[in-house]
Amino acid sequence: MTVRVPAKVNLQLAVGPPRADGYHDLVNVFHAVSLFDEVTASAAGSATGSATGSGTGGSGVTVEVTGESAGEVPLDEDNLAVRAARALARHAGRPPGVRLVIRKAIPVAGGMAGGSADAAAALVACDRLWGLGLPAARLMDIGAELGSDVPFALLGGTAVGTGRGERLSPLPDAGPFHWVFALAGGGLSTPAVYAECDRLRAAAGQDPGEPAISTALVAALAAGDARALGAALANDLEPAALALRPSLAGVLAAGREHGALGALVSGSGPTCAFLAGSAGRAKSLAAALRAAGVCRAAVTAAGPVPGATVVSGG
């Protein structure tokens, strides 16, 4: 059972003050883009192809990883796909008994929710493999227990997330919109970026107040207006990501210099996202970024796209 699942870019990430539980209230406008991981679930002990990394991620779950930065993906209980399979098995009252193969194209620790995407794909793949037939709403609930970004990877499209980002409402989107993602070497820790955001705000005496959605961004999405959307892109975590990885400022500047309609750090970074006016302009911008030598790689994508989708074995 193979499930394809998209990366996300945060079109707006508004971050409130720290809560008592250590999380932050968010207004998080998610946008699913055509950069995909695939997760295949098969019966434990079944044969699969070669993998860059493999391991036993807990009782009854074996995981293998190939593709983009596969060597950086954990193969134990820190792997969200492993945790997803085990959580679903607990819900169903059955042993996990599954082999997962993850084919990576979404950057690891890149601010595009690759780990959460893999968890969403594992939920869908194991649900089908085990014949559970759980409703989408129940999978969303299980996903929310695993991580704030998992429910959106199940939903896809464009949506606003509130609370920790897990409470989702779809947004009208008259895309497609065309993107370039500049991939950095190495990752950034999401908890470290949030901690730096809090530190920078405290040092500046800033009170962020309660987060609110941008009406300009919502209107641009509904109208399919790429230029207006580019002007409305915003990420409250960007100053923290730049403080921890100053070289990202040069990446953003290069994208703007070469014609991006909008530029921002994606989520907690370090991937930088650039909005282009067309597929052709996205291709040209990616080539310019590669030639400038400011990133490890530059890839193009479009959105919105659907969430986790069965592509074979269903």
Automatic annotation (TrEMBL):
State its role: Catalyzes the phosphorylation of the position 2 hydroxy group of 4-diphosphocytidyl-2C-methyl-D-erythritol.
Checking Pfam families in the record gives: GHMP_kinases_C, GHMP_kinases_N
Stated name of the protein: 4-diphosphocytidyl-2-C-methyl-D-erythritol kinase
Q: Known InterPro entries for this protein?
A: GHMP_kinase_C_dom, GHMP_kinase_C_sf, GHMP_kinase_N_dom, IspE, Ribosomal_Su5_D2-typ_SF, Ribsml_uS5_D2-typ_fold_subgr
Q: Which residues form the GHMP kinase N-terminal domain?
A: 79-157
Instruction: Kindly identify the residues recorded as the active site.
Output: K8, D149
Broadest EC class assigned to this enzyme: transferase
EC number in record: 2.7.1.148
A GO biological process held by the record: isopentenyl diphosphate biosynthetic process, methylerythritol 4-phosphate pathway
Which stretches make up the GHMP kinase C-terminal domain? 218-293
Task: Tell me the organism's taxonomic lineage.
Answer: Bacteria, Bacillati, Actinomycetota, Actinomycetes, Streptosporangiales
Origin organism is Sphaerisporangium rufum
Q: Which family does it belong to?
A: Belongs to the GHMP kinase family. IspE subfamily.
